[in-house]
Amino acid sequence: MKILIVEDDFTLAGEICRLCEKWGFEAVYLEEFQEVDKQCEKSGCDLVLMDINLPYYDGFYWCSKIRSFSRVPILFLSSRDQNADKVMAMVSGGDDYVEKPFDTELLLVKIRALLRRAYEYTQADREYLGEHLVYDRNQGVLLYKGRTIEMTKSENRILGILAENKGRVVEREELMQHLWSTDEYVTDASLTVLVSRLRAKIAECADGVSCIHTRKGKGYYLE
Protein backbone atom coordinates (compact mmCIF):
# COMPACT_ATOMS: atom_id res chain seq x y z
CA MET A 1 0.00 0.00 0.00
CA LYS A 2 1.30 3.44 -0.98
CA ILE A 3 0.78 6.50 1.26
CA LEU A 4 1.04 10.07 -0.01
CA ILE A 5 2.00 12.65 2.65
CA VAL A 6 0.84 16.22 2.00
CA GLU A 7 2.65 18.20 4.71
CA ASP A 8 4.63 21.44 4.20
CA ASP A 9 6.78 20.88 7.30
CA PHE A 10 9.36 18.77 5.48
CA THR A 11 11.06 17.62 8.68
CA LEU A 12 7.76 16.21 9.93
CA ALA A 13 6.89 14.86 6.47
CA GLY A 14 10.20 12.97 6.40
CA GLU A 15 9.59 11.55 9.88
CA ILE A 16 6.10 10.35 8.91
CA CYS A 17 7.51 8.88 5.72
CA ARG A 18 10.09 6.87 7.66
CA LEU A 19 7.43 5.73 10.12
CA CYS A 20 5.20 4.49 7.32
CA GLU A 21 8.09 2.62 5.71
CA LYS A 22 8.94 1.07 9.09
CA TRP A 23 5.34 -0.15 9.28
CA GLY A 24 5.67 -1.79 5.87
CA PHE A 25 4.06 0.84 3.64
CA GLU A 26 5.51 2.63 0.65
CA ALA A 27 5.48 6.36 1.39
CA VAL A 28 6.28 9.59 -0.45
CA TYR A 29 5.77 13.25 0.44
CA LEU A 30 5.11 16.27 -1.72
CA GLU A 31 7.61 19.09 -2.03
CA GLU A 32 5.38 21.41 -4.07
CA PHE A 33 1.78 22.34 -3.37
CA GLN A 34 0.44 24.19 -6.43
CA GLU A 35 -1.30 21.10 -7.87
CA VAL A 36 -1.85 18.68 -5.03
CA ASP A 37 -4.81 17.02 -6.75
CA LYS A 38 -2.87 16.26 -9.93
CA GLN A 39 0.12 14.95 -7.97
CA CYS A 40 -2.20 12.74 -5.95
CA GLU A 41 -3.73 11.28 -9.10
CA LYS A 42 -0.32 10.75 -10.68
CA SER A 43 1.06 9.03 -7.59
CA GLY A 44 -1.45 6.17 -7.62
CA CYS A 45 -1.52 6.26 -3.83
CA ASP A 46 -3.82 4.13 -1.66
CA LEU A 47 -4.16 6.67 1.17
CA VAL A 48 -3.46 10.39 1.67
CA LEU A 49 -2.22 12.02 4.89
CA MET A 50 -3.33 15.64 4.47
CA ASP A 51 -2.30 18.67 6.53
CA ILE A 52 -4.84 21.51 6.76
CA ASN A 53 -2.48 24.51 6.71
CA LEU A 54 -0.78 24.39 3.32
CA PRO A 55 0.65 26.99 0.92
CA TYR A 56 -1.68 28.33 -1.82
CA TYR A 57 -4.84 26.45 -0.71
CA ASP A 58 -5.73 24.60 2.49
CA GLY A 59 -6.22 20.87 2.89
CA PHE A 60 -10.02 21.18 2.77
CA TYR A 61 -9.78 22.62 -0.75
CA TRP A 62 -7.47 19.88 -2.00
CA CYS A 63 -9.58 17.18 -0.38
CA SER A 64 -12.64 18.43 -2.27
CA LYS A 65 -10.65 18.50 -5.52
CA ILE A 66 -9.41 14.93 -5.01
CA ARG A 67 -12.94 13.75 -4.23
CA SER A 68 -14.05 14.91 -7.69
CA PHE A 69 -12.16 11.98 -9.24
CA SER A 70 -11.07 9.57 -6.50
CA ARG A 71 -12.35 7.67 -3.46
CA VAL A 72 -8.88 7.26 -1.96
CA PRO A 73 -9.01 7.44 1.88
CA ILE A 74 -7.89 10.83 3.23
CA LEU A 75 -6.69 11.22 6.82
CA PHE A 76 -6.27 14.80 8.01
CA LEU A 77 -3.32 15.79 10.20
CA SER A 78 -3.52 19.15 11.92
CA SER A 79 -2.49 21.14 14.97
CA ARG A 80 -5.89 22.85 14.77
CA ASP A 81 -8.12 21.16 17.36
CA GLN A 82 -11.33 23.12 16.93
CA ASN A 83 -14.46 21.08 16.34
CA ALA A 84 -15.31 23.26 13.35
CA ASP A 85 -12.12 22.07 11.62
CA LYS A 86 -12.99 18.43 12.29
CA VAL A 87 -16.45 18.96 10.87
CA MET A 88 -15.02 20.73 7.82
CA ALA A 89 -12.59 17.86 7.29
CA MET A 90 -15.49 15.44 7.02
CA VAL A 91 -17.64 17.79 4.93
CA SER A 92 -14.86 18.25 2.38
CA GLY A 93 -14.63 14.48 1.93
CA GLY A 94 -12.08 13.42 4.55
CA ASP A 95 -12.33 10.05 6.30
CA ASP A 96 -10.69 10.76 9.66
CA TYR A 97 -8.72 13.34 11.63
CA VAL A 98 -5.62 13.20 13.85
CA GLU A 99 -4.41 16.11 15.97
CA LYS A 100 -0.74 17.10 16.15
CA PRO A 101 1.32 16.22 18.03
CA PHE A 102 0.00 12.71 17.50
CA ASP A 103 0.82 9.39 19.08
CA THR A 104 2.51 7.17 16.50
CA GLU A 105 0.54 4.10 17.56
CA LEU A 106 -2.73 6.00 17.13
CA LEU A 107 -1.65 7.11 13.66
CA LEU A 108 -0.83 3.52 12.68
CA VAL A 109 -4.17 2.26 13.98
CA LYS A 110 -6.07 4.90 12.02
CA ILE A 111 -4.10 4.24 8.82
CA ARG A 112 -4.72 0.50 9.04
CA ALA A 113 -8.40 1.00 9.85
CA LEU A 114 -8.92 3.27 6.82
CA LEU A 115 -7.08 0.91 4.48
CA ARG A 116 -9.03 -2.08 5.78
CA ARG A 117 -12.34 -0.24 5.44
CA ALA A 118 -11.53 1.00 1.94
CA TYR A 119 -9.96 -2.11 0.44
CA GLU A 120 -10.25 -5.36 2.40
CA TYR A 121 -14.03 -5.23 2.82
CA THR A 122 -14.51 -4.69 -0.91
CA GLN A 123 -11.85 -7.17 -2.01
CA ALA A 124 -14.40 -9.82 -3.02
CA ASP A 125 -16.15 -7.35 -5.32
CA ARG A 126 -12.98 -6.12 -6.98
CA GLU A 127 -10.95 -7.62 -9.78
CA TYR A 128 -7.41 -6.32 -10.18
CA LEU A 129 -6.74 -6.24 -13.91
CA GLY A 130 -3.33 -4.58 -13.87
CA GLU A 131 -1.22 -2.16 -11.86
CA HIS A 132 -3.63 0.42 -10.40
CA LEU A 133 -6.41 -0.91 -12.68
CA VAL A 134 -9.44 -2.25 -10.78
CA TYR A 135 -12.91 -3.34 -11.87
CA ASP A 136 -15.52 -2.97 -9.12
CA ARG A 137 -18.06 -5.65 -9.99
CA ASN A 138 -20.51 -4.51 -7.35
CA GLN A 139 -20.77 -0.99 -8.75
CA GLY A 140 -19.90 -1.78 -12.35
CA VAL A 141 -17.07 0.76 -12.37
CA LEU A 142 -13.58 0.56 -13.88
CA LEU A 143 -10.96 2.53 -11.93
CA TYR A 144 -7.40 3.48 -12.76
CA LYS A 145 -5.45 5.06 -9.90
CA GLY A 146 -8.80 5.72 -8.26
CA ARG A 147 -10.22 7.56 -11.27
CA THR A 148 -13.24 6.22 -13.18
CA ILE A 149 -12.79 5.16 -16.81
CA GLU A 150 -16.06 5.91 -18.55
CA MET A 151 -17.55 2.97 -20.46
CA THR A 152 -20.66 2.48 -22.55
CA LYS A 153 -23.33 0.07 -21.31
CA SER A 154 -22.13 -2.63 -23.72
CA GLU A 155 -18.46 -2.16 -22.82
CA ASN A 156 -19.30 -2.39 -19.12
CA ARG A 157 -21.33 -5.54 -19.72
CA ILE A 158 -18.48 -7.19 -21.63
CA LEU A 159 -15.90 -6.32 -18.98
CA GLY A 160 -18.25 -7.47 -16.22
CA ILE A 161 -18.73 -10.88 -17.83
CA LEU A 162 -14.98 -11.28 -18.37
CA ALA A 163 -14.32 -10.26 -14.75
CA GLU A 164 -16.84 -12.80 -13.45
CA ASN A 165 -14.99 -15.47 -15.44
CA LYS A 166 -11.46 -14.24 -14.87
CA GLY A 167 -8.91 -16.86 -15.94
CA ARG A 168 -11.40 -18.60 -18.25
CA VAL A 169 -11.93 -17.98 -21.95
CA VAL A 170 -15.42 -16.61 -22.55
CA GLU A 171 -16.57 -17.67 -26.00
CA ARG A 172 -17.77 -15.03 -28.43
CA GLU A 173 -21.20 -16.64 -28.68
CA GLU A 174 -21.61 -16.49 -24.91
CA LEU A 175 -20.71 -12.81 -24.85
CA MET A 176 -23.21 -12.05 -27.62
CA GLN A 177 -25.97 -13.92 -25.80
CA HIS A 178 -25.35 -11.90 -22.64
CA LEU A 179 -25.56 -8.69 -24.64
CA TRP A 180 -28.75 -9.84 -26.36
CA SER A 181 -30.31 -10.35 -22.93
CA THR A 182 -30.03 -6.59 -22.42
CA ASP A 183 -32.08 -5.98 -25.58
CA GLU A 184 -29.02 -5.04 -27.62
CA TYR A 185 -28.52 -7.14 -30.73
CA VAL A 186 -24.81 -7.70 -31.37
CA THR A 187 -23.37 -9.43 -34.39
CA ASP A 188 -20.06 -11.24 -34.52
CA ALA A 189 -18.49 -8.30 -36.33
CA SER A 190 -19.87 -5.69 -33.95
CA LEU A 191 -18.59 -7.67 -30.96
CA THR A 192 -15.09 -7.44 -32.42
CA VAL A 193 -15.50 -3.68 -32.74
CA LEU A 194 -16.82 -3.35 -29.17
CA VAL A 195 -13.91 -5.29 -27.67
CA SER A 196 -11.40 -3.39 -29.80
CA ARG A 197 -12.80 -0.04 -28.66
CA LEU A 198 -12.81 -1.17 -25.03
CA ARG A 199 -9.19 -2.26 -25.26
CA ALA A 200 -8.18 1.04 -26.85
CA LYS A 201 -10.07 3.03 -24.21
CA ILE A 202 -8.39 1.16 -21.35
CA ALA A 203 -4.94 1.52 -22.93
CA GLU A 204 -5.48 5.26 -23.46
CA CYS A 205 -6.81 5.97 -19.97
CA ALA A 206 -4.56 3.55 -18.08
CA ASP A 207 -1.13 4.36 -19.49
CA GLY A 208 -1.05 1.51 -21.98
CA VAL A 209 -2.30 -1.27 -19.70
CA SER A 210 -3.54 -4.27 -21.69
CA CYS A 211 -5.82 -6.64 -19.80
CA ILE A 212 -8.23 -8.20 -22.34
CA HIS A 213 -6.65 -11.11 -24.20
CA THR A 214 -7.83 -13.05 -27.23
CA ARG A 215 -7.92 -16.81 -27.72
CA LYS A 216 -7.99 -17.05 -31.50
CA GLY A 217 -11.12 -18.68 -32.81
CA LYS A 218 -12.62 -18.97 -29.32
CA GLY A 219 -13.15 -15.74 -27.40
CA TYR A 220 -11.67 -13.40 -24.80
CA TYR A 221 -10.29 -13.65 -21.28
CA LEU A 222 -8.73 -11.75 -18.38
CA GLU A 223 -5.65 -13.20 -16.71
Quick summary:
It is built from 8 helices and 12 strands. It is α/β, with parallel strands linked by helices.
Task: Tell me the layout of helices and strands.
Blueprint: E1 2-6, H1 10-22, E2 26-29, H2 36-43, E3 47-51, H3 59-67, E4 74-78, H4 83-91, E5 96-99, H5 104-120, E6 126-130, E7 133-136, E8 141-144, E9 147-149, H6 153-164, E10 170-171, H7 172-180, H8 188-205, E11 212-215, E12 219-222
Parallel strand pairs: 1-2, 1-3, 3-4, 4-5
Antiparallel strand pairs: 6-7, 7-8, 8-9, 10-12, 11-12
Helix pairs in contact: 2-3
Pfam families: Response_reg, Trans_reg_C
Domain OmpR/PhoB-type: 125-223
Keywords: DNA-binding, Phosphoprotein, Transcription, Transcription regulation
Name of the CATH class of the largest domain: Alpha Beta
Looking at this structure, what is the CATH superfamily of the largest domain?
Response regulator
Low-pLDDT parts are none
Proportion of residues in extended strands: 15-25%
Strand order of the largest sheet: 2-1-3-4-5
Strand pairing plus helix content: what structural class? alpha/beta
Number of helices in the DSSP assignment: 8
Based on the structure, what is the oligomeric state of the protein chains? single chain
CATH architecture of the largest domain, please?
A: 3-Layer(aba) Sandwich
Mean pLDDT across all residues, rounded?
87
CATH domain topology of the largest domain: Rossmann fold
Report, as a whole number of angstroms, the end-to-end distance: 22 Å
Helix content: 40-55%
- Could you tell me the radius of gyration in angstroms? 21 Å
Number of strands: 12
Question: What count of structural domains?
Answer: 2
Secondary-structure element order, as H and E?
EHEHEHEHEHEEEEHEHHEE
What characteristic shape results from the CA principal axes? elongated
The biggest sheet, with number of strands, parallel, antiparallel or mixed sense and barrel status, is: 5 strands, parallel
